[in-house]
Amino acid sequence: MDVASATSFYGEIHVIVGPMFAGKTTALLRRVRAETEMGRSVAVIKSDKDNRYGLNSIVTHDGEKMSCWAMADLLTFKTKLGFDAYSKLDVIGIDEAQFFGDLYDFCRMAADYDGKTLIVAGLDGDYLRKSFGSMLDIIPLADSVTKLTASCELCGKKAFFTLRKTGDTQKELIGGADIYMPVCRQHYVSGQVVIEAARNVLESQQIQEDVYLEAAPLSSQLVPS
Ligand SMILES: [Zn+2]
After folding, report:
1. Cα of 190 to ligand 1 centre, how many Å?
2. What is this structure's pTM?
3. Which residues of 60-98 are buried (b: 16+ CB within 10 A; e: fewer)?
4. Structural contact between residues 15 and 142, judged by C-beta atoms closer than 8 angstroms
5. CB 89 within 8 A of CB 64
6. Number of C-beta neighbours around residue 30 at 10 A
7. Could you provide one GO biological process annotation from this protein's UniProt record (predicted)?
8. Distance of alpha carbon 209 from the chain centroid
9. Confidence (pLDDT) at 221
10. Interval between CA 194 and ligand 1 midpoint (Å)
């Protein structure tokens, strides 16, 4: 038995987290390429929710590109790829992993029973700095966890958080630099205050407009022109 097969019965799970624009996908692809160069068989999966760069490829913010499987969930990957092809895989990269509800079960099975090495990249927190999807659930399963940082868009210090620049409040809002920016703690806190204030102003203007529109026909009756 050679070294590769002797070490491949049980797999590994390596997790890469951080805010947007922290180079998570770049780190994932670098890692996957290194595995390929060592002669290991690799597949990369991403969520089909993010189709910003086309469905069948992963593109980093620096423009690096790799072909991938766009999936709605992970547990059907084995069937979609085919059992034979799946059994020959050594390494599975998963990008935007926060979007997969079955992340925990897939990673556990793939590493514990199928001997796969998993490299999993995703957001640890959402724009409110709350746990995003199942991303944090897999940390107890992991061999290693790396938290990457970006540069604060406002001061250049290390950025740990993703600030949403718009007033949208749904948890999953796919977008890039038009909607999000990486920020340090200070600018996350002050940014949230600014955005909250802007939202309140917009909402109160909306209320005034609604009141004005409702009042308009009445006032036109009462006030002679
Ligand atoms: Zn800052």
Report:
1. 9
2. 0.82
3. beeeeebebbbbeebeebbeebeeeebeebbbbbbbbbb
4. yes
5. no
6. 14
7. thymidine metabolic process
8. 37
9. 43
10. 14
Residue range 9-32: mean pLDDT, rounded: 95
* Dist. CA 106–CA 108, nearest whole Å: 6
- Centre of ligand 1 to C-alpha 182, Å, is 9
Q: Token pair 């180079």 is at which residue?
A: 23
51 CA to centre of ligand 1 in angstroms: 30
Q: Which of 12, 64, 96, 196 is catalytic?
A: 96
| Residue 111, both tokens | 């590493």
With cut-offs at 50, 70 and 90, classify the pLDDT of residue 171.
Answer: confident
Q: What is the pLDDT of residue 42?
A: 95
The single-letter code of the amino acid at 146 is: T
For 186-218, give the DSSP string. Answer: HHHHHHHHHHHHHHHHHHHHHHHHHHHHHHHHH
Annotated binding residue at 188?
no
Which domains occur in the chain, in start order?
A: 1-148 (3.40.50.300), 150-225 (3.30.60.20)
Provide φ and ψ at 17, rounded to 5°.
-120, 175
Tallying the residues shown for the chain, one arrives at 225
Q: Is 12 among the catalytic positions?
A: no
Instruction: Tell me how far apart the alpha carbons of residues 42 and 220 are, in angstroms, rounded to a whole number.
Output: 71
DSSP-based three-state secondary structure for 40: coil
